[in-house]
């Protein structure tokens, strides 16, 4: 079977390709970064360069494929709505239109549980708990809007996954940010670091994607994906920093102050149309302050998803890789 993987040149995409190659699939890898894309090419991987917002460029990748993993997205916490709309909403609509036109056997869409983000503790969130709207940032808004498109395509056999907090070797987002912060000013500690975080090893997300491609479940289903082992913020920070041999320096900060700074920074950046991401956003503040865990029973029973790597093993892999490079 030949699978089109959008976002193939990104962090998750490379793990998806590995997981699929290990299970005898062939791949059409789609992305804009030609250098990274060409490096992916092999006997069973063909690279097609293009932008998701151009249906003509995307069409080139739909030739002779059986199924699609749509993991490409503008995936940052800050930026203008137009950019997110083009990449994530129009991009997903193009994927849906072509999936219909080429009658693909399955479309697995990688969405995001960031759509659940709210200023409160939320434990055991179920797929059906998704809000109708969430304008916390343009990324979240675009992911929610892209999910809504699927109801207009009941004839496209699709499954939506919402994997939370991906980490692993090659991560350019979560762990590197934490390390930068730790080295520069220390780790901001709110509520004593006892809030729960529900992370996912990137290898497990790739596994969930393959299972979603193969599962005999009804189409139109949505699944939360995590490691199923929520850990406290403090545990995650200390295990990682100790492993890396880095000092653990906390900065105890009152939650109200962090909130105030995040709101003010966003206001200033918006007022002056600053392109860079503010050093602290309301989304990061929510992540640092509130517990959020997801129910993954639906993925377990319907997809047969059981993580193959534990959080501890995932951190250890990251640490070993970092130490060796
Ligand atoms: N990382 C997380 O914690 C997390 C959590 C939940 C959900 N997700 C979702 O998982 C997916 C993969 O995320 P990631 O962490 O792997 O992000 P990433 O490393 O930033 O990769 C994003 C990928 O999307 C491609 N892309 C972006 N805009 C594009 C466009 N206009 N046209 C074509 N390709 C475009 C990029 O291609 P080029 O670089 O070649 O342009 C890249 O391959 C995304 O859908 C994201 O929303 C991620």
UniProtKB/TrEMBL annotation:
Gene3D superfamilies (UniProt xref): NAD(P)-binding Rossmann-like Domain
GO molecular function: aldehyde dehydrogenase (NAD+) activity
InterPro entries on file: Epimerase_deHydtase, NAD(P)-bd_dom_sf, NAD(P)-dependent_oxidoreduct
Residue ranges of domain NAD-dependent epimerase/dehydratase in the record: 3-225
GO cellular component, one term: cytoplasm
Name this protein carries in UniProt: NAD(P)-dependent oxidoreductase
Organism whose genome encodes this protein: Streptococcus lactarius
